[in-house]
Amino acid sequence: MRLQDVYMLNVKGLARGVFQRVSGSAVTDLYSPRRLFSLTADDCFQVGKVAYDMGDYYHAIPWLEEAVSLFRGSYGEWKTEDEASLEDALDHLAFAYFQAGNVSSALSLSREFLLYSPDNKRIARNVLKYERLLAESSYQAAAEAVILRPNVPHLQTRDTYEALCQTLGSQPIHYQIPSLYCSYETSSSPYLLLQPIRKEIIHLQPFVALYHDFVSDSEAQKIRELAEPWLQRSVVASGEKQLQVEYRISKSAWLKDTVDPVLVTLDHRIAALTGLDVQPPYAEYLQVVNYGIGGHYEPHFDHATSPSSPLYRMKSGNRIATFMIYLSSVEVGGATAFIYGNFSVPVVKNAALFWWNLHRSGEGDGDTLHAGCPVLVGDKWVANKWIHEYGQEFRRPCSPNPED
Ligand SMILES: O=C(O)CCC(=O)C(=O)O
Ligand SMILES: [Fe+2]
Questions:
Q1: Which atom of ligand 1 is nearest to the CA of 380?
Q2: What is the 183 CA–ligand 1 centroid distance (Å)?
Q3: Which domains does the chain carry?
Q4: C-alpha 157 to ligand 2 mean position (Å)
Q5: Which of 192, 195, 183, 206 is nearest to 343 (CA)?
Q6: Which of 314, 403, 323 is nearest to 365 (CA)?
Q7: How many CB atoms sit inside 10 A of residue 74's CB?
Q8: Least confidently predicted of 4-8, 46-50, 237-241
Q9: Is the pLDDT of residue 240 over 90?
């Protein structure tokens, strides 16, 4: 349902096994699987029922509609694995419509139910109730009531976030902006003279750069393998506590440098590229993150925004910068979206994204609000190296200008 909302997928397509974005009359194929795996009537019923049980009729109705339509089409062909039937789907859909204020649909579905099970007293009572309600004129108008998407306060940032996720990271006019260019990074360290890294400047305020082929396929695989046994549901800092939250769905693990020499090599490379000190306690251990289908991280800051944040326990200040490596590709979705920057970066396997979280004054940079878009198809892996303020005094000198 999250994927449906963020990528504007239509239920009919999903049930046939295709991923289509439907916006007005425009239909875009987001992904064409090599083989179509369609959902059964019962599958659609089960999805609809999850929403129905939460009182979320906005999502329940299209899934139950699909279930009803598929059950109707295969009436009489009973499948052993089916838990539900046409009657179950009609019953739930009728009630969902009633709850959503559409009494006439509730009535016609309940009447259809009675064709199959004429002895059902509860449905017969509902039919009488719906007929009576419809006879009262006040209910006529409610039939057209629009059902609003539940559980989400309407936020401008949400609209921007979802729109940025939908572009899947493509930046159609990027090449027209001269300050956003590509170069070989060779200047900050002798190491880079021998092995230059391709840098793509993605954005200036906030400054975001993408370093292509920062790791090799085998390094990326090694890091994923090292983390795999330690993965646990990700948490976020909330006041002084660490909590599991709906807005961050992924698994993660922390890898200390002593675990494997590849992690030491990686630190040296990050230090060469950023010019920053990444030795403990000036940077955190490497955090490896794995997102499954529907996994996401809604808009957030990486730096602490409250003085009681657990981030300060390292006693090395706030998170001055983020260095995030894409350890896998993703078939569809999973872009990294910068909400106020109004751009998103696609998942580019083996590339690394760098940005400053703080101004030179030490103030958090509000423009860095960013998110990991939900994974639609595939399996996304990233690794975060968070670099702290202390230790960087001569590497990124401070400035009294709040803009710097
Ligand atoms: O997965 C992403 O693209 C972003 C991850 C992120 O922002 C984080 O882990 O703090
Ligand atoms: Fe982040």
A1: 1
A2: 25
A3: 39-142 (1.25.40.10), 156-388 (2.60.120.620)
A4: 16
A5: 206
A6: 403
A7: 13
A8: 237-241
A9: no
Supply 61's token pair: 């109705």
**Contact assessment for residue 301 and residue 357, using Cβ atoms and an 8 Å cutoff:** yes
Closest C-alpha to 327, from 232, 204, 182, 213? 213
| Contact call for residues 267 and 257 (beta carbons, < 8 A) | yes
Question: Cβ of 257: how many Cβ atoms within 10 Å?
Answer: 17
381 in contact with ligand 1, CB cutoff 6 A? no
Which ligand 1 atom lies nearest to the CA of residue 234? Answer: 9
Q: 208 CB under 6 A from ligand 1? A: no
Neighbours of 22 (CB within 10 A): 15
Please indicate whether residue 359, judged by its CB atom, sits closer than 6 Å to ligand 1. Answer: no
DSSP label of 171: -
In short, whether 384's Cβ falls inside 6 Å of ligand 1 is yes
- Pairing status of strand 296-300 against strand 248-249: antiparallel
Of all ligands present, the nearest one to the C-alpha of 236 is 1
Q: What are the structure tokens assigned to 11, written together?
A: 């239920």
| Under 8 Å between Cβ of 11 and 3 | no
Residues around the ion ligand 2 (C-beta < 5 A): 302
* Ligand 1 atom with minimal separation from the 370 CA: 7
One-letter amino acid at 212 equals: H
Residue 145 has a pLDDT of: 64
Contact by Cβ (8 Å): 358, 319: yes
Number of helical (H) and strand (E) elements in the chain, helices listed first: 12, 20
Q: What is the pLDDT of residue 136?
A: 85
Atom of ligand 1 nearest to the CA of 373: 3
End-to-end, the C-alpha distance of the chain in Å comes to: 41
Strand partners, 253: 288
Evaluate: CB of 336 within 6 angstroms of ligand 1.
yes
Nearest of 304, 314, 308 to residue 358 by alpha carbon: 304
Which helix (H) or strand (E) element contains residue 19? strand 19-23
Cα gap 287→371, rounded to integer Å: 16
Cα–Cα distance between 385 and 362 in angstroms, integer?
19
For 198, the token pair is: 């391709």
The ipTM estimated for the assembled molecules is: 0.99
